[in-house]
Amino acid sequence: MKIFPAIDIKDGMAVRLYQGDYDKVTVYGSDPAEIALGFSESGAKNLHIVDLDGARDGSPANFEIIGKIVEGSGLFVQAGGGIRDEARIARYLKLGVSRVILGTAALTDFGFLCEMVKKYGGRIAVSVDASGGRAAIKGWTEVTDTDGMEFCEKLAAAGVETVIYTDISKDGAMGGTNMAAYDRLSTIGGLNVIASGGVSSEDEILQLKNKGIYGTILGKALYSGALNLKRAIKIGEDK
């Protein structure tokens, strides 16, 4: 199982939000590129980046910082946040981002998503962020009527290879992740599921791995010291 340390960027800084609330911000560093380098030195091969400013208002506010991270870290970078048209997808891929994450655009314009998947294949991933089981958009500020699980099934049927699924209520809370959700998601054929939100123990990493989950995003648990990245990677990669 792949381990994705996370860097969420707001106002140019590496931060974590509590349950997606932009008013509950903890700053962990003023130089996200330096943090990415530290992850790389700890053995990370992958990195998950979210431009929080972009996710909320659709602007590529932290594009240059993401470029610095890609150039300096040498990691497989998946990035999202405010990527809502093909021009921006192409711009991120040209920058060196390995996989572009669509969130709001995937839900509000499914035809566009299908077109991008047909054109770019596995370089397009979809972030499904659920609040009370319903998919949220626009940086989690708006909850729709779309059932998150059913949307994941629809994505798989449309040829999407990778889905990042987050239970918003678990994100940043250090209270564990929603294992029941990943039990169900693991049954969707042909879909690489990345678990996100609340993963905070080595046992949870092992449980997700044993369910056949493709990847796990680690955020606050790394920044707070609850998890050691080197150990997490070893657990994820051990046969």
List keywords for this structure.
239 residues, alpha/beta, TIM Barrel, 11 helices
Rg (C-alpha, Å) = 16 Å
Q: Mind telling me which CATH architecture this is?
A: Alpha-Beta Barrel
User: In the CATH hierarchy, what is the superfamily?
Assistant: Aldolase class I
User: What about the largest sheet?
Assistant: 8 strands, parallel, barrel
Number of helices: 11
> Strands of the biggest beta sheet: in what spatial order?
1-4-5-6-7-10-11-12
Mean pLDDT across the residues is: 92
What is the CA–CA distance across the termini? 9 Å
Number of strands: 12
Assembly category:
single chain
Shape category: globular
Low-confidence stretches: none
What structural class results from the helix and strand content?
A: alpha/beta
Residues in helix, %: 25-40%
What number of domains?
1
Order of helices and strands: EEEHEHHEHEHHEEEHEHEHEHH
User: What percent strand?
Assistant: 25-35%
Tell me, what is the CATH class?
A: Alpha Beta
Question: What is the third-level CATH name, the topology?
Answer: TIM Barrel
Notes on the structure:
α1 (32-41) runs parallel beside α3 (63-73) and α9 (202-210) packs parallel to α11. The protein has one domain: TIM Barrel. It has helices spanning 32-41, 52-57, 63-73, 86-95, 104-108, 110-120, 148-157, 179-185, 202-210, 220-223, 229-237; strands at residues 2-10, 13-18, 21-29, 46-51, 76-80, 99-102, 124-131, 134-137, 142-147, 162-167, 192-196, 215-218. It is of the alpha/beta class and 239 residues long. An 8-stranded parallel beta barrel has the order 1-4-5-6-7-10-11-12, surrounded by 8 helices.
